[in-house]
Amino acid sequence: SNVMINRLDNVAKPKISTEAYNHWSAVARFFRGFEYSRLVSVFGDVPYFDKEVSDTDLATLYKDRDARGVVMDKVYDDFKFVMANMRENDGAQYLNKYIAAAFISRFMLFEGTYEHYHGLDAARAKKYLEFAVEAGDYVINSNKYNFTRDFKSIFSSDNLAGHPEVLLYRTYDAALAVTHSIGSYQNGTEVVGVDANLVLVKSFLLNDGKVWQNSAVAGANSFTIADLVKTRDPRFEASFYDKALIPSATLLYGFKFASRDALTYIGKTYPAAWGSNTNTSDAPVIRLAEVVLNWVEAKAVLAQYYGAAAVTQADLNKSVNAIRSRPLDAAAIAKGVLKTAPLTIGALPVDPARDTDVPDLIWEIRRERRMEFVFEHTRLLDLKRWKKL
């Protein structure tokens, strides 16, 4: 990024329009902010560089680490520049302001809540969380993306082009020898040494929107897989096979990243698409569900601890309840799966398992993230920033 900025300033600037210069500077600064956000999330304090460094400048190359707050303030400035200068559209699958805003909502929520829950700098926490809301607003208010496709389609489609929920995806093509093996690891035959545990299972809401301890849904207290599939939030059925499978260490076999077709080959010869490192299903890189949940969580933390306006029912309807409105696919309907009832401000679930240091609303937003992001990297980031790891 610093090399790109240097060349833009010293070579390209006189030869391109101001708009192009600002856009490409925003692209460079986005990737600088992206990488430093990632590094800080892993290492904390890291050495920060905002200029190209010569490979002979050893004193600079081996400088001490900078404090995470200093680094993330620089990232904040880069991302502000991005939101002011990046193009809204630069072609399909190219970085644009909507994609950038989606990632900004992720990184600003991470650092804002990390600062808050780890007792670091409250002023920084507030600033970053407010930016997470701003970035989320930009994506949500555009009305360019929606929840009109089923959950399973996000992870098992060979072509995510035009998927209304996916802002950016990675495409795979066997003809180009660009394939992966993620689906094969969940094909029903592959041995999975670490899989879902009972605590995760119990966290899934019933389809009446309540926890299992006080739900009126028939079979709420049953933990057979057949009953779980029918009584729990639809994302349970879309994430786990509906029968116990020995290859899973816990018998509950995750198949979130494999298609329904893939598991029809158990005990048979797998086709190339699901049998090895030859999977061709596209991979979502950033999607609307994360943006709206980043947005509503940032609003909830700001309201609870920093004097911002309370989260409203309208906010929940744009986020949690919009996600729950996803249509069900035919296979889920055939199994008796039902959509989960909306989350209502005045009737939040009463969960005996709630952490006492987490208010009810924030707990339910966290639960929504858990159901949505199980097995995804976003889930690991959540546990880190909440100080649960």
Which terms summarize this structure?
single chain; 389 residues; mainly alpha; Serine Threonine Protein Phosphatase 5, Tetratricopeptide repeat; 2 domains; two-stranded antiparallel ribbon; 48% helix
- Low-pLDDT residue spans: none
Radius of gyration over alpha carbons? 22 Å
Mean pLDDT: 97
Distance between the termini: 31 Å
Give the amount of beta strand, in percent.
Answer: under 5%
Please, what is the oligomeric state?
Answer: single chain
- Series of H and E elements: HHHHHHHEHHHHEHHHHHH
For the sheet with most strands, the description reads: 2 strands, antiparallel
> Please, how many domains?
2
Helix residue percentage: 40-55%
Give the class from helix and strand content and strand pairing.
mainly alpha
Instruction: Specify the overall morphology.
Output: globular
How many E strands? Answer: 2
- The order of strands across the largest sheet is 1-2
- Tally of DSSP helical segments: 17
